[in-house]
Specification:
single chain, Rossmann fold, about 300 residues, Conserved Hypothetical Protein Ylqf, Chain: A, domain 2, about 45% helix, six-stranded mixed beta sheet, 2 domains, 6 strands, alpha/beta, about 10% strand
Length: about 300
């Protein structure tokens, strides 16, 4: 699935991040605990260098706690990276973030100079809510749809820490198609930019494989269908999503499934695991190599025809 939603303010913000990084002591990247890999910005990984980084797994109350622990262990294998699994329902735990900032920069913490942190995250990941809790006042605008923050902000949250806030940023090209679907499933992309049905079918297939019991309980299904098409039809019948002639309104079913998954009413669900991503990354390398081979073959063919 190609993501065709990259507003101009995101492009502007990515340029600003590159310019401001030399002034930053530490990076705080807010990830969606349900998709820690797919919600990481590859641009940041390329630019961060050896700067310490705290990866905050936001919305951890919506994610599978066993999988979240796996992700924390996996992410902290990288030099200079620490993780925190947080939720907006635990504001006191959120304040542990300031303590961790000081622990990661002991020399800076003992001086009079403030710690300058860059806080980043994809749209709709809870970044603005976290900032407001840390600051103890309403500073960042919040909302249930992506792309609320439009400009960079400099925020003094006390405790010797200054946050440099940036708009929620996606990136122009999401190479891994499954990551694109996961971003859409969690609501990181505006619903107007995608097909509800395509995304819901992806989610249905995944849930049938990894969380069948939660599906069966939530939608009160006597027998769980084997395929996503039949699952969507069964949900449609249960929820009365019927048109004349008994046909299922798939768009309506798709909206129900996605909204309940996003809200956590189906249960605590993670959409990717470290082992799953390792496999997908290996497949992506093969795809890149195949594309490069085709590109070279086309060039050779063009050169050959030009020499005739």
């Amino acid at each position: 699935m190609l993501i065709q939603w990259y507003p101009g303010h995101m492009h502007k913000a990515s340029k600003e991040v590159k310019e401001i990084l030399p002034q930053v002591d530490l990076i705080i990247e807010i990830l969606d605990a349900r998709i820690p890999f797919s919600s990481q910005n590859p641009m940041l990984a390329a630019l961060r260098g050896d700067k310490p980084c705290i990866k905050v797994l936001s919305k951890s109350d919506l994610a599978d706690p066993v999988v979240t622990q796996q992700w924390q262990t996996y992410l902290e294998q990288e030099q200079g990276v620490k993780t925190l699994a947080l939720t907006t329902e635990q504001p006191e735990k959120m304040r542990q973030l300031t303590e961790l900032c000081h622990k990661m920069l002991p020399n800076k913490a003992s001086s009079d100079k403030p710690i300058h942190t860059l806080i980043m995250g994809i749209p709709n990941v809870g970044k603005s809510t976290l900032i407001n809790i840390l600051a103890g006042r309403m500073i960042a605008k919040t909302g249930n749809e992506p792309a609320i923050t439009k400009t960079q902000q400099r925020i003094d949250i006390g405790h010797g820490i200054i946050l440099l806030d940036t708009p929620g940023m996606l990136w122009p090209n999401v190479e891994n198609k499954n990551s694109g679907y996961r971003l859409a499933t969690t609501g990181a992309i505006k619903d107007t930019a995608i097909s509800h049905e395509n995304v819901a079918f992806f989610a249905a297939e995944y849930l049938l494989q990894y969380y069948p019991d939660l599906l069966q309980t939530r939608f009160q299904l006597e027998q769980l269908p084997e395929a996503e098409q039949q699952l969507m039809e069964a949900i449609g019948k249960k929820r009365g999503c019927l048109r004349s002639g008994g046909h299922i309104e798939m768009d309506k079913v798709a909206k129900i499934l996605l909204s309940e998954l996003r809200a956590g009413t189906i249960g605590r669900i993670s959409l990717e695991t470290p082992s799953m991503m390792e496999k997908e990354l290996a497949e992506l390398v093969i795809i890149r190599e195949q594309k490069e081979a085709k590109k070279k073959a086309r060039k050779q063919k063009w050169k050959g025809s030009a020499n005739l």
